[in-house]
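User: Okay, second chain of the day. Same drill as before: sequence in, structure tokens out.
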Amino acid sequence: MEGDSMTYLDILQENECINKEKDTTACKAEEEYFYRGGKVTWLNFYLSEMQESLPFIKRDKYEDLNSLIKKQSKLSKSLVCVNLFHYPGCGGTTLAKHVLWDLRKTFKCAVLNNNFAKGAAIAGQVLDLFVNGGQKQTVLLLVDDLKASENIKELQKYILDGIEKKNIHCNSPVVIILSCIRSESPVESMTTSFTDSVCITNKLSEIEQSSFEKKLQEIQKSHENHKTFYGFLIMRNGFKKSYVEDVVQEMFKDRQEHSKEAQLISFLALLNSYVSNSSLLGSVCESFLRSKDRVHGSKPVEEQMESFSGLLIRFKNSVKTERVRMAHKMIATQCCEELEAKEISRSKITKDLLSSLFVKEMDDDPLLMRDIQDMLVTRQKSTKFSQLIEDIRGGERSKGKCIAVLTTAAKLFVKSAVIPQALARFYYIIEKNYSKASEWAKCAKERNENNSFVADTLGQVYKYEMKQKQKHRPDQLDIFLSVAKDSIDAFQEEQVLAKKEGPVDLENQWSRKRTSIYNTNGLFGELQVASYVFDTLSTLHPLQEEMKKFLRYELQIDSICKNDNNKQFLQILKKKPFLTTLKSRVKIVFGFYESYLTYSKPSQMKEESGYIHKEVADCFLKYTSSECNSNVETEAVDQNRKYLEAQRAASFPGLLHCLSERRDAATMEKIKQSWQCIYNSSTKTKEDDLNFILANVVLNCINPKSVNIINHTELEFILKNVLSDEKEDEPQTSAEMYFLALVLLWPQEETKLYVEKIWKCFQNQYELHFRSRFIVPHFFLGQSSGLNRVVHKSKIDTCFNGFSETINMLWHSGEVWKNDKVKKLLCRVEGRTEGYEVFAQHGKVKIRVQPDKRADVRNDHKVSFFLGFSIKGPVAYDIQYPGRSPVESK
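Assistant: Same drill. Structure tokens below.
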């Protein structure tokens, strides 16, 4: 396949630049372009290898990155990833390309040149390159600033899909993805990354400083205009702000800050300060400048910009369109500060940009539309609004200017839902103007009526307004409850939308960044409102105790004695029928979160935020706690169920959570006894039987010496009875039933059927909600017998007490499986791979299991692995191939 047909890849040939004619003037211009701040090209590396040139500056982290890639290439995985985190403008992409240049004879090297292409199309071209020319050779793919981590995961998935579909056999990686990621805190990003990583900062070592000094001397001899090589000089000066200040001040010296040239600089400075890789269309820049003087119509931007031209870089993007940007982000930021000193604020520049020719011509420039939206809307986790809006609010000390900017943009971008959404957030969080907030939140909904994340804002507006309302007088309480009802209605509508949408529906209008998770904000928002309503009514004088009982369904409004003090309050409460549905809704939402937080988590490396667990549990207990004695000693089933509810052990995921949080043995004994009582009753359900079995398993994990544990044989008998009662296509059939069947009955002839059943049940019950989340393995197959063969994950974790690395890091890296204690604890299962599927083999029984890491699977080999059990089914961990060392297999 010819390189030209690889539309999304810039392929680096082994003989790159060698057979091309090189004009001396063109080569010199190429060097100047790079030193001024342009992106490095393969020709730059080639020219640096000429005898008359100094070698290309080798950054300190060059060897680290080079060695890491070579190390990864020896792994027996079909796909591996390496991250390079770098501070913006410190040469990260240049370092990555330098490594590619030097490895071009070891791997087939390519750079992704279109971050907006679909993952499947990119993967197809990458795999075509792997087999290109009849020689199968690892592809080293550089992916530069693919913004969302979901996009990297998506690309990995499509590459693995393609490897399996093409039935590619390889003992070494088919693809190595080198992901170059901009970060304001590269060291922190590297230490928290679960992928093998290298980072470079904006500080040069002494060796690097020396290299830059030598290179500067060479440049000064061969380039007269070396003082405009800002990309190089900023690095050579150690990224000192003082140097950039001097450059920018000199540029603005004796210049009219209101001129067309200065205005164009202000637009580019604003965009480049806040949005990576932003730019303006070259042709529109020329038109913008030409409007002041028709005589200069034929002149390029650089000539029209006069002394400002040194600050600009003209380049061609992936579709060969000429665009213009600033030479360096530090220059862009300093230009904004210089203009601000001249009383041209960021808010003014933004408003001028929004009314400029660039926006009027935006139909021809969708990239600008995306960049402006990102600048106004995209925020960091630590900020409430985009950095631009935060800077306007803080630096200009003006909330009004923030509103003016966002309002102008919202009216201009009539198809954008996220700008009015941001405006609504500003109104309710900062201004406390809930009328305006709801107006813009509704506007956002109208523009994207099927997006649940957009719909969430209206519920949040009402929730914030509800909390600000007074509720001491009857009329105030009436308004408070009406707003609470509005909030609940909005959150419930959001929940309906969330169930309808899939990952593709959530794609951002102007970028590849997408949210693939299931939106739970509506559920959590409804819970928060219900909790606040309970707190408010339970402190309502003089009805505190009556309100608690009313909200818990223990007392009806008509049963409360009326008097002059409470009569009006009771009349209002009677007109709010939604109050009588709160407890049932809270129990439904709590049931969702019990499964959601127990069976899954955001990723293998990341735990759920603690406040979510706490608020969900607190709200549930408010509505369900009663006078139930914590030392239940009764045969009454309803009392035992209330006790279990209070202990949050009334369900299958609730019992598993007891184990995850290591409940004390005494409490777990009481929980098991309550389930014994329910199991012995005539009103028990199939679900009760399953929970009773699990209660015994959990108690055995916490206190294996307990005399109250039912033995494995009897539990197996109970479970088989439950399984035998299963009716074909029975709606109540649950993944939990087959989860227990796999844990307690592995491996039997029927196990193969149970695996198929649990996959189907998971798909029906949980796949929608758990998409893009890590499914937690709760149990592992141990070397003991009976119930002691069931090893909980927490027991494995305790083998690493005192380790400096986080337990999540150890799990993700696979270091867990190298520990001798773990090896003695768990049983390795024999099996094989067929067609990139993994099977456990037990005699004649062959059972399919899911691999923990798809990239570990090689086709048609004998294997062994540790076996884990999640609510999605059996999972193979630490897949080893006989005849290869553990290091090679990993």
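The radius of gyration is 32 Å.

User: Thanks, on to the next one.
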